[in-house]
Each structure stands twice: as C-alpha cells, then as structure tokens.
Design brief:
By secondary structure, the chain is α+β, with helices and mostly antiparallel strands. Among the domains are: 190 residues, Sandwich (Jelly Rolls), CATH 2.60.120; 121 residues, no CATH class. The protein has 37 helices and 17 strands.
Length: 883
C-alpha cells in the first residue's frame, strides 16, 4: 500500500498534462468553403511556455462527404517563413461545429510570443470542403482572424495585411503542457475566480449546481451508508426492517428526483402521441395509429393516470415517473439474489438517483413500463430458480411450490414486457442463462423452461387475440412485430446508409456523457464479479490447490482484461463523436481519473471477504438441512469453503456458489449483448433506446461501491496500523472524489444538454392556451402535433395520433396495412379539405406536406398564418383557412 501511494505521489509531482489556455467555442458565421487557394489564419499570444496544442472549430456542413487533408501550420508572426509545427488531418475526422485539437511537440519558448495558425485544404473542391467557424464580435483582443483567397505561394508581410480581419476571430483555443500539480492548482484558482466574478448574474446556474450536487451526494452517501450499516450475518426481523426502511426512503427520493426533471425537460412527439391515444381511449374511441398494438399496456397505464388526475403533461409523465421509481424494487432483488443485500441496496440506490436513469424514466414512452416488467420478470426468475435449488438441498416441499409459482410469474412478467415493447425480446437470452446455470439438474432445467414458457405464452396469446379481435389479421401480424423487423431490413436504401449511420451515432452519444459514473462503476463491477468467479473456479480445481493464493490472484487479475477493453472502447467512442460543447467541468480529464481508479482497483489485492455464515462452518453435518434464508445469506466464499475442509456435503454448496458467481458475471453481459444484437440492424438508433441498456449496467455497477469500499478499508500488508489507516483513507477519499466528480458532471449534462424533446413546456402550454381562446372546442385541428390538442381539449382531425405512417414509404405503399390502423389517404385528404384550422410544426410537415402535393401547395394558397409561437428551431404556427 505504501508503494502504491509512493507511485501516486511521483505521478502527481512528475506527471504532466495539458492545461487549457484561451478557449472560445462561440461562433456567428463561417469562413466559407476551404477550396484550393483558400488559407484561414488566426494570431494569438502565448500565455505560458510549452504550447502543446491548438484547437479549431470546423463546420462540415452537417457531416456531408467531404474529402481531402486539412493542413495546419504554426509559425511565429515575426518569422512567417519558418514553420514551427505542422499537422495534417483528414476531413473525415472532423465533426460538425466541433473543436478539433491539433497536437504537436510542445513549443518550449511560447510565453508572450505572438503566433499565427494557418489552415488550408489544398485539394478542397466545391461541395466537398469543410470550413472554419468564426466570430465577428471580436472576442479575442490580442489577435485576429485572417482569410486569403487565391493564394498560390508563401504569405508575405503584404499578404498578411491584405488578409487580416480586425474585428473577427476564429473559434479556437490553446493548451499547454504543464506538471499535474500546476494544472490542478491553476484549474482550482480559475474556478474560484470565475465563481466570484459571476455570482450575481449566474445564481440560477449555481442553484442548479447545488441541486445536482445534492443528488450526487445522496447517491454516494446512501451507498456508503448501506455498505457500512447493513450487516450480512443477520437474517432477523430487525435486519429486514432496516432494509425495508432504506428501500422506502429510496423510493421517495427516486420520485422526487424524477419529478424535478419531469417538470423541466421538453416534450417529445411520441409523448404527445401516447397521451392522445390514452385520452381518446377514455372517450370510448380508438385513435389512429399503431399505438394500441405496439404498446397497449402503456396506453392503458397512461389512461389510468389521466382518469385519476386529468389531462396534463405532468399527470401523463407521472405514469412513467412512478413506474420508473418502482423499478428499483426488482432491481434490488436481482442485486440481492446475485450477490448480497448490500449490493442489492447499492443497485437500488444507483437506479433511484443516477441522472441517466432518472431522465429516461420521465418521458411518456414505452420504455419505462416495459423495463419494469422485464426487470421484474428476471427478478422473479432468480427467486424461482433459487427456491427450486433450495427445495433440493433442504428437501422441503414448500420451496418447490413457491419456486414454480415464481417461474410462472416470471414468464408472465416477461410476456407483459414484450406486450409493452417488442425490444424486450432482446432479453430472451437472460432467462435461458439463469435457468441453465442456476438449475441444479437437467430435469430441473427442463421443468423451469416449461414453467416460464407457460407464463409467457399465456400472456402473449391473450395479447394477440385482442389485437386480432380489434384489427383483424393485420392487427395480429402487427402485434407479433414481424412487420417492424421487415421494416428495419428494407426501409433504408443503400444510398441512405451513411446518413442513417450518422443519425444513429448521434443517438448513441448521449449515453457516454450522461453515464460517466455508470461506465466507471459498471467496469469496476464487471472486474469484481470476474474476480469472484475466478475464486470459485480455482477453488473447484482440486489438482491446483497447492500454492492457491498466488494462482488465484493471477487468475483473478486476468478477468480485468475485458472490463478494461470495454472502458477503452467507450472512451474512444466518446472522444471521436462527442461535441466539444459538452466538455464541461473537466470532462476530458475525468476519463483519465476514472481510468486511474479502475487500474488501482484492478491492481489492489482482493483480500478475504467477510465470513457470512458461521453456521455453515461450524455445523458441517447440518449443511443440507439449512433453510432458504441462511442459504441466501451464504455466498460461499472460497476462503470459507477451504476453512471448512473438503467435505462432500459442502461440495454442493461450493458448486452452487460457482454457478451463481458465473451467473453474476454473465447476466449483465449477455443482457447488453442481446440488446446490441437486436438494435444492430434496426432502422435507426434513437437516443430514447439508451434507457433499455441501463438495467444490466446498473446491476453490475451496484457491486462496485460496496466491494470497492471493502477493499480500500480492509487491512493490507504488514505496515503499522497508523500507516495503513492513513493510506486506506487517502485512497478511499480519492475513490469517492472521482465518483462524486463523475456524478456531478453527468447529472449536470443530463439536465442541461437534453438529448431529446421537440416542444419546450412553456411553448407547448402557450400554444394550447391560444387554441382554447381562439378555436371553438368542437372544431378539430389538422396537425401531427397531438400534444397540443391533448392539452387544449380539442380533437385532432380524424383522431390521427400517429401520423408518420402517411410519410414512411414502407407503410404508405402498403395500403392494407395503413388502412387497418389509420384513416385511408383519401379520408385524410378530405379531412384536410374540411378543416378550418391547421397547426404546422416539424412532425406535421414531415407527415403531411412532404408526400402530399395537395397539402403542400395548398398551404400558401388556401391558408393564412394567424399565430406563430417560438419553440427553438421548431416554430409552431396556427393557420386558418381563407374564406
């Protein structure tokens, strides 16, 4: 441990990092296409020595297929002919309106030296060239931008004067190589100065910081309190009540956190569609669209809340908020069954308070309810499998009865999840994994599969029957999801694949900025789970018992290879695709700090886990007659098993422990792989889908805090107690510091940089109020924005809640499929002709104007704009028919 601290101290003292200098990421225009002969430049003055990089913001014209190599040169302004540094980068590596960092060997003598950066694209061609973002408000007073066109040779002093733009600067930045301790000190002092200078004008922002910090502190504090306060040895009523109190507290906090987000974040089109579906159902009608076969339980769940609380965005979102908070209960059960109560509570806490899980539980989408059923199904499956195993060990029939009931319930819950959202089918490998690994005998595996399958088939049969009863054969086919699979395969043409890929990447990037602490904890949890599996595997190799300690350690550390590779991939994806505007609060350095934590935890001795059940050790002859609660408490550590000796009756317990360690390591991994496989060939990956990847990551992440804390607070080595205590506390505080830092950054970014949403809540309410005051309640509104008539009390023409099928090629051309769920195209056009009011925004334009010339051409001829409502880039405009 002393050696580790010594190495850490040397790294801090001798290590170097980059310190940001001037940074300006705002822009008002661009320099135009960088065609051949165009050179763009910027002068600046070095703030300190060892200039190591210059950042420039490029624009790629929405990521079109640009070609060529951008040439970057750095020179002293007083020695234009001398190139100090030169770097080239392919235009394909540049992001749209994102900073690109040109790294080079540090320029040692840089302080107070005036430099000029020159950028050119020698082979730039019209339509295939990038540009550089500029700011014509003169933000940098110690230099200016330069733009030359038609350059054929070196830049002279005369050319320098000709190309200067005195009141313009590039969107650029600088960075310098400095020792770590200097960087930390500078960043801290810079933060203090910024806080002092902006306190009065930015108090609202600081209030948000305080709220985000409180949420982060609660998560860390509760996890640590659970780790320290919950005792593993007790299975008493007091212990159960202690856990129950924690869970109730967490549930309340989960509700509060989600409500705060729900009251602020913008509304999506899908939310409006489902809210209108539910409101129409309460009127005894069916809205137009596939909502009732795609997610019938979701619509019914929303309708229940609307019936209880009325038609409002807040009430609608409460349906997702409550079910999202309730998901922490089955998450706790999964963590408890796989590992322990401490881990279960840590899993529940992470789900309850982590920003990324909170935000995905507020939208009125299908995911929240579907995830609840899926997670509950897997929790029930673990309970059933455990009971079936206990029934064989204890020879008590009651556990067999409860085990079968849990297995049937597991199948039914998984079926309800699939009914709520078809992508829950991606979890299909998880039940198979639990049954195959957790069941003790081949007969038990077959029996468990049949029981789970029975529950699943019963629910699915009812759902398919109702779909066929309402919509006929088309409803049956749509309810199975086969149409969606076919759509995902055939909808994208070859020429569109690159565009779709870019859209999908934009849909994935929010995960990496919103899940920073989850990524670190999941990687740590996967490593810890791997070490537990290694202990079990080595413990069962009787021929390898000699020198067990060092061999076990070697095998344990090998299991960290996969987690480190996962982290490396996540980091590289983030760096390649994330925008520079997201890099707040040292996010780039945070990735290094999280890597340092992972490396330390991987290298740290695993130690001996606490002895969980003295009864198993001291009463070997009674092992097979232990009750369920004692078996649940026993996690059969290798050390416990060896201390008890090689006794046949304990062998089954050790093998059971090995199976469950294998299950704990594989279950989250297989869950994620199933989702990746499911979405790999999907039409597009929307940011909303990220929520489905969170449960398995939270489950494995829940192991990280209790296990990490245990390692950092147990005795190591033969040094004095004082030295051990100081070093342990130092490293533990470092772990907590990095975790708190990542939580704060991720929670803040989640709140400020929303990844989805079409309507600002204030704009939405303004549009609804205008409709209430100016449009008779009995007159329908022709629109694709169902959320506004939902709020105002009006009806959408023909109750079309899901209008995009009129625009999608795979449904527009399949008239039988379209007509089964929506009014026919002719009926839709007639409703347009009869309408007195039209509300235009992006979804309305996409659904009705792009493919129907009569509507597009008639907008200017037959309609008059009467009210425009600002809503970011998606302005809402009311039109009234001309008479």
């Amino acid at each position: 441990m002393i050696g580790v601290l010594a190495v850490l101290g040397m790294v801090v003292w001798l290590g170097t990092t980059e310190l940001e200098g001037y940074q300006a990421e705002r822009y008002t225009a661009n320099a135009g296409e960088m065609l051949g002969g165009v050179v763009v430049g910027q002068t600046f003055v070095g703030e300190r020595d060892n200039l190591s990089s210059v950042l420039v913001m490029f624009a790629t014209y929405s990521g079109r297929g640009n070609t060529g190599q951008v040439k970057f040169t750095l020179r002293r302004l007083d020695k234009l002919s001398e190139i100090l540094r030169e770097v080239e980068v392919s235009t394909r590596e540049l992001g749209d309106n994102q900073m690109y960092q040109f790294n080079f060997d540090p320029v040692e003598q840089a302080k107070d030296i005036t430099f000029i950066v020159l950028l050119e694209l020698p082979d730039g061609m019209p339509g295939k060239a990038v540009t550089v973002d500029v700011d014509n408000r003169d933000p940098y007073h110690r230099g200016s931008a330069y733009i030359w066109r038609g350059m054929t040779g070196e830049i002279s002093d005369t050319e320098l004067a000709r190309g200067g733009k005195v009141k313009m600067d590039l969107a650029f930045g600088t960075a310098y190589k400095v020792p770590l301790y200097v960087a930390w000190g500078s960043e801290g002092w810079r933060a203090v100065q910024y806080f002092r200078e902006t306190w009065y004008e930015a108090r609202a922002t600081y209030g948000l910081w305080g709220r985000v910090a409180m949420q982060s502190l609660l998560l860390v504090g509760i996890c640590l309190a659970v780790t320290v306060g919950i005792k593993s040895k007790a299975v008493s009523a007091k212990s159960r009540w202690q856990v129950a109190r924690w869970l109730v507290t967490l549930f309340v906090l989960a509700l509060v956190a989600r409500i705060l987000y729900a009251m602020e974040l913008p509304l999506t089109n899908d939310e409006g569609n489902y809210l209108y579906d539910a409101a129409t159902l309460l009127k005894g009608k069916l809205a137009g669209g596939d909502g009732y076969v795609k997610a019938p339980l979701v619509v019914l769940w929303i309708a229940l809340w609307e019936w209880l609380g009325g038609t409002s965005i807040f009430v609608g979102r409460l349906s997702s908020v409550v079910i999202g908070a309730m998901t922490m209960w089955p998450m706790y059960i999964i963590g408890r069954e796989l590992w322990s109560k401490k881990v279960g509570l840590s899993v529940a806490t992470t789900w309850a308070l982590l920003g990324v899980t909170v935000v995905f539980n507020i939208y009125v989408h299908t995911q929240s309810l579907a995830i609840f059923f899926a997670v509950s199904g897997i929790a029930a499956l673990l309970l059933g499998t455990r009971d079936m195993y206990v029934s064989q060990v204890s020879m008590e029939r009651k556990y067999r009865v409860t085990g079968k009931a849990w297995l049937i319930a597991a199948g039914a819950l998984l079926g309800l999840g699939v009914v709520s959202r078809k992508s829950i089918l991606a979890t299909g490998l998880v039940p198979l994994l639990v049954i195959l690994i957790g069941s003790k005998t081949g007969r038990q595996k077959i029996q468990s599969l049949l029981l789970v399958g029975a529950g699943f088939v019963i629910v699915l049969a009812v759902f398919l029957g109702v779909a066929m009863l309402i919509y006929g054969q088309a409803g049956l086919w749509e309810a199975t999801g086969f149409n969606s699979v076919e759509d995902s395969i055939t909808a994208v043409e070859e020429s569109e694949r690159e565009q779709v890929r870019a859209y999908s990447i934009r849909g994935m990037t929010p995960f990496f900025r919103e899940s920073l602490p989850l990524i670190m904890l999941a990687v740590l949890g996967l490593g810890f789970a791997g070490e537990r599996l290694a202990s079990s595997l080595v413990g069962q190799m009787e021929w390898w018992q000699g020198g067990l300690g060092w061999r076990q350690n070697v095998v344990q550390k090998l299991f960290w290879i996969i987690p480190v590779m996962v982290y490396s991939w996540a980091w590289s994806f983030f760096q390649e695709y994330e925008g520079s505007s997201i890099m707040v609060f040292g996010m780039y350095r945070l990735w290094w700090a999280m890597l340092l934590v992972i490396v330390f935890m991987a290298a740290w001795p695993s130690g001996v886990r606490e002895n969980k059940n003295e009864k198993i050790r001291n009463n070997k002859d009674d092992t097979e007659r232990l009750g369920k609660e004692e078996l649940l408490e026993y996690r059969g550590t290798l050390a416990d098993g060896l201390a008890a000796g090689k006794i046949d009756r304990l062998g089954n317990q050790l093998k059971s422990e090995g199976r469950w360690n294998l299950l704990g390591w594989l279950l989250p991994f297989v869950w994620v792989v199933g989702l990746v496989f499911f979405y790999h060939n999907w039409i597009k990956f929307h940011a909303n889908y990220i929520g489905e990847f969170l449960p398995p990551l939270v489950i494995i992440a829940g192991l990280a805090i209790p296990e990490g804390w245990r390692r950092l607070t147990q005795g190591q080595g033969s040094h004095s107690a004082i030295v051990n205590k100081v070093s342990q506390r130092t490293l533990a505080l470092g772990f907590i510091g990095v975790l708190g830092w990542s939580l704060f950054v991720a929670n803040y970014v989640t709140y400020v940089h929303e990844h989805t949403g079409t309507f600002q809540l204030t704009s939405l309410q303004e549009a609804a109020n205008w409709a209430k005051q100016n449009i008779p309640i009995d007159e329908p509104i022709f629109t694709g924005a169902a959320a506004i008539p939902f709020l105002s009390g009006h009806e959408v023409s023909l109750d079309i809640a899901h209008p995009r099928w009129y625009a999608y090629g795979f449904t527009r051309t399949d008239t039988a499929r379209l007509n089964a769920f929506l009014p026919t195209v002719e009926e839709m056009l007639q409703a347009y002709r009869d309408a007195e009011w039209l509300l235009l925004e992006q979804q309305t334009g996409f659904s009705f104007l792009m493919e129907y010339e009569e509507i597009e051409a008639g907008l200017a001829r037959n309609w008059q704009a009467v009210k425009g409502i600002e809503n970011g880039s998606n302005t809402m405009t009311y039109y009234r028919r001309k008479r």
